[in-house]
Amino acid sequence: MHPPNVKKVFVRSGIRFDYLIADKDDEFFYELCKHHISGQLKVAPEHISDVVLSKLGKPKNAVYERFVEKYKRINKTVLTTQLCVLAVGGILGNLVFLLGEPLMGLYTDSAVVVEAGIKRFSVVCTTYALCGMMDVMVGALRGLGYSVMPMIVSLLGACAFRLVWISLLFRSEAFHTIETIYYTYPISWTLTLAIHLICYLVVRKKSFEKMMAA
To answer: Residue 182 falls within a domain, yes or no?
Structure first.
């Protein structure tokens, strides 16, 4: 637990990397990398020679190498995944919108249908990366051992919210348009993504505090 009035705690050294590698649950390691280092973490292997390490009763140098590799991987996992989703979803989604007419032409010759399709592309496809980012946070929560929480948040944010939106806002004469329905997609994705992110941060913080108090 943090002392009163202490907003941030950084760990700069003193980590037993062999214990972290032996831990089957990476939750502590993820928490450490995400919230309690300033970009660098110092560790002090006793030696690089396995012969010397065996005399000291210490694990082999390969354990240290695995720690370094795991540290780098954990530091990049969530951020890299979000950036990949943002790039791929943003590029492909906007590409579909820009190529809307020829793509719609593969399915219909009706100008009215093509226009309606492009109208949907302009809202749903251009923001589709948000859906992917939302799913990344679901995976991150499940990786921490929480599966029911993201399921409930997704049901409420991506499903129940849209039903409420249609039942209330769409029924209003001023908003009784097809665009009003389309807008439920990016808005629900953004809302659900934000709640998943909050849950992710809270879960990690509480888990770390329990570990520190244990």
So the answer is: yes
Which positions ≥6 away from 29 have C-beta within 8 Å?
A: 20, 23, 70, 71, 74
The whole-number pLDDT of residue 74 equals 63
Mean pLDDT by 10 residues, the chain (214 residues): 60 63 71 65 65 73 72 70 87 92 91 92 93 89 83 92 91 89 94 92 69 44
- Residue 45 tokens, joined: 């292997």
- Whose tokens are 């502590």? That residue is 28
40 vs 43: CA distance, rounded Å: 10
- Give the residue numbers spanning the domain of 125: 17-213
Q: Which of 27, 16, 89 is nearest to 58 (CA)?
A: 16
In a domain, 162, yes or no: yes
Both tokens of 191, joined, read 């809302």
- One-letter amino acid at 126 equals T
pTM over 0.85: no
Helices assigned H by DSSP within the chain: 17-22, 27-35, 50-56, 61-98, 100-105, 111-120, 129-143, 148-154, 161-168, 178-182, 184-213
Query: Is residue 10 in a domain?
Result: no
For the chain, the domain total comes to 1
Residues 6 or more apart whose Cβ sits within 8 Å of residue 150: 137, 138, 141, 142, 196, 199
Contact status, residue 137 vs residue 123, Cβ threshold 8 Å: no
Is 79 part of any domain?
Answer: yes
Letter for the amino acid at 116? A
